[in-house]
């Protein structure tokens, strides 16, 4: 089934730009193992000890059903997340893969062989390779080509073939490949594509592939590829809409697809391939349908909605739209919907403020809901975990901006950490975060996670409000949040830190440019510091996709605007303390973005803390690196928020 909503994962580039430890040597740069740092003090033992529990929280993500009736999950019992098998609810987790690098989930071959495919990259470079695991002898075979980036792996219904996309460095056009993974010599190009394309579903006969092309969060196209002739037919042509998950019907005559056509929000519709006739399948919820799964017999659709950031699960009859029984999971997030081969069980992952994430299975016939895993939370008392309050505050132009507020115990006034999501078309959703719980319970800080204009989940109009020349309006939303904080008697307006990664890192830097006099500091993780250099240095196959959001730097007027709003060009206005965190192998935001803002701040007469991981990419995936990151962040927050040790 096609997954068009996972824009960030699908558009991640594979990269270049590892920073040199020699650069900045005169500023006291030191290297310890794979970590390069500046200005970070030694970590006190008591900081490391108290963080241990929060850093040893685990989660289990539902991956797929195993042929023996058990399930596959991804979880971490060491440095990285690996694939494990669970034979029964609450049964022992048996580790299957053992790599130094994290792996993607198991994608079970639907032929009863027990084989499954998974993906893995190296050092966070996101050049994912596909592998086939055979339980018969425990062997693993790589079936993709070295030096390429691969994803969206799908099986034909008989399990004879697999399709996926392949992209290469610097090329904007992706291809669709097809092969029997157990026979790498069978590899063939099924379609030489234009732009960012990726397969989503085989037709029931195996003779066609449903695939999509992504332009932006509000624009994508959907096609059918005939494998025998190579002919490509666009579904629902001549409309400018977005598509989410999509799948062939059981007879192959139509497709079910999540789309925003004729609506500000995404719904599920059925499109007849021969006539183009469209039927709305789900009611108008007033929120986006976030994910969909179609049962193998085509009779049942499971889907989730994103209702103000909270997931709701629904089951309906595909032909009539009649609502079927579905479990009430309470306040949290639901993902990874997957039916078993018989269509009798639905597996998924559920996480909430009190639950770090576990695999659940719902039996459609009996209505029984079963939790299959119970992930450890470091021995912490989850009853003390803080649940967020959803508020709205008014921005500079009267726009109501939603935000989740985690308030610590006690009267305050509490210091505040404003956590800004990435994307930019992302959305903060209140799942589990051991970091947030540490900040509230151990540091006594309130945490506010705003969904500023440009965030997804609130309709097409809202997500487009920061595009192009309106980029800094989202930064002004942070200024309005500072105004709101000043009205709250339990919050300390003089002790506020901004924190964010990726695009959220840009928002941190931009907030420091405009509001350093109102901020105690900022933590920028893998953030954009100059939009022009970012667009010029990001990989070729994702450059046009980012231009659709940020603007085209080749246009003189837009280039001038991008230069004018880039924090690296206004570093003299960043007077509040800054902590910069970066992965050397980052394929999305090159490490040069971190180096240039560090140098610009230094030239302006200020110092910054700096942490570079030589074996990481767009964020830290390895536990030892994450542990040190959290320890260093804690020291920084204690310092700038004037917290007692």
TrEMBL record:
- Where does the UniProt annotation place the signal sequence? 1-21
The Peptidase S9A N-terminal domain extends over 107-373
Q: Does the keyword Hydrolase apply?
A: yes
InterPro entries in alphabetical order: 6-blade_b-propeller_TolB-like (IPR011042), AB_hydrolase_fold (IPR029058), Pept_S9A_N (IPR023302), Peptidase_S9_cat (IPR001375)
Q: A single Pfam family, by name?
A: Peptidase_S9
Taxonomically, which superkingdom?
A: Bacteria
GO biological processes: proteolysis
Which keywords describe this protein according to UniProt?
Hydrolase, Signal
Looking at the record, the residues that make up the Peptidase S9 prolyl oligopeptidase catalytic domain are 432-641
Recorded GO terms, molecular function?
A: serine-type endopeptidase activity
Keyword Ribosomal protein assigned to the entry: answer is no
PANTHER family from the xrefs? DIPEPTIDYL PEPTIDASE FAMILY MEMBER 6, SERINE PEPTIDASE S9 FAMILY MEMBER
Protein name (record): S9 family peptidase
What organism does this protein naturally occur in? Marinicauda algicola
Q: What is the lineage of its organism?
A: Bacteria, Pseudomonadati, Pseudomonadota, Alphaproteobacteria, Maricaulales
């Amino acid at each position: 089934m096609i997954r068009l909503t996972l824009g960030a994962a699908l558009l991640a580039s594979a990269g270049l730009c590892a920073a040199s430890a020699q650069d900045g040597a005169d500023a006291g740069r030191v290297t310890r193992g794979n970590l390069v740092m500046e200005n970070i003090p030694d970590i006190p033992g008591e900081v490391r000890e108290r963080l241990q529990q929060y850093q040893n929280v685990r989660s289990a993500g539902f991956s797929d059903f195993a042929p023996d009736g058990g399930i596959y999950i991804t979880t971490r019992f060491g440095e990285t997340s690996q694939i494990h098998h669970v034979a029964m609810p609450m049964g022992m987790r048996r580790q299957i893969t053992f790599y130094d690098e994290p792996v993607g989930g198991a994608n079970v071959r639907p032929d009863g062989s027990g084989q499954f495919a998974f993906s893995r990259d190296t050092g966070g470079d996101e050049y994912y390779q596909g592998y086939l695991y055979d339980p018969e002898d425990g062997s693993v075979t790589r079936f993709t080509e070295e030096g390429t980036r691969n994803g969206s792996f799908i099986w034909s219904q008989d399990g004879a073939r697999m399709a996926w996309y392949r992209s290469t460095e610097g090329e904007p056009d992706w291809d669709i490949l097809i092969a029997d993974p157990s026979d790498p010599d069978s590899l063939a190009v099924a379609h030489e594509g234009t732009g960012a394309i990726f397969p989503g579903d085989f037709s029931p006969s195996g003779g066609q592939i449903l695939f999509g092309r992504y332009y932006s969060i509000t624009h994508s196209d959907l096609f059918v590829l005939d494998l025998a002739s190579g002919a490509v037919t666009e579904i629902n042509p001549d409309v400018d809409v977005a598509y989410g998950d999509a799948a062939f019907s059981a007879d192959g005559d139509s497709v079910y697809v999540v789309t925003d056509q004729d609506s500000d929000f995404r719904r599920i519709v059925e499109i007849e391939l021969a006539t183009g006739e469209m039927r709305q399948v789900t009611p108008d919820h007033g929120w986006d349908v976030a994910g969909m799964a179609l049962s193998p017999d085509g009779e049942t659709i499971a889907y989730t909605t994103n209702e103000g950031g909270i997931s709701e699960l629904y089951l309906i009859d595909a032909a009539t739209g009649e609502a079927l029984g579905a479990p009430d999971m309470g306040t949290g997030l639901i993902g990874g919907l997957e039916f078993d081969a018989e269509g009798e069980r639905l597996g998924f992952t559920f996480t909430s403020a009190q639950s770090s994430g576990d695999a659940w299975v719902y039996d459609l016939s009996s209505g029984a809901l079963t939790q299959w895993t119970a992930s450890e939370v470091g021995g912490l008392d989850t009853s003390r975990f803080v649940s967020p309050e959803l508020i709205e505050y008014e921005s500079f132009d009267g726009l109501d901006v939603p935000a989740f507020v985690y308030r610590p115990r006690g009267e305050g006034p509490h210091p505040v950490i404003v956590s800004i999501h990435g994307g930019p078309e992302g959305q903060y959703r209140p799942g589990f975060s051991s970091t947030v719980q540490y900040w509230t319970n151990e540091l006594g800080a309130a945490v506010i996670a705003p969904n500023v204009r440009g965030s997804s989940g609130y309709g097409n109009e809202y997500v487009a409000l920061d595009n192009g020349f309106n980029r800094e309006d989202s930064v002004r939303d942070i200024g309005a949040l500072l105004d709101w904080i000043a009205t709250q008697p339990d919050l300390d307006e003089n002790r506020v830190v901004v924190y964010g990664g990726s695009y959220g890192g840009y928002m941190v830097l931009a907030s420091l440019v405009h509001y350093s006099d109102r901020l105690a500091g900022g933590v920028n993780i893998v953030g954009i510091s100059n939009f022009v250099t970012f667009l010029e240095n990001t990989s070729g196959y994702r450059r046009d996709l980012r231009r659709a959001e940020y603007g085209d730097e080749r246009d003189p007027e837009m280039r001038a605007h991008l230069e004018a709003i880039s924090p690296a060009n206004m570093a003299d206005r960043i007077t509040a303390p800054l902590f910069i965190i970066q992965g050397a192998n980052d394929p999305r935001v090159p490490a040069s973005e971190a180096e240039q803002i560090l140098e610009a701040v230094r030239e302006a007469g200020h110092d910054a803390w700096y942490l570079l991981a030589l074996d990481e990419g767009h964020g830290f995936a390895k536990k030892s690196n994450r542990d040190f990151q959290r320890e260093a962040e804690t020291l920084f927050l204690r310092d700038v928020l004037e917290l007692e040790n």
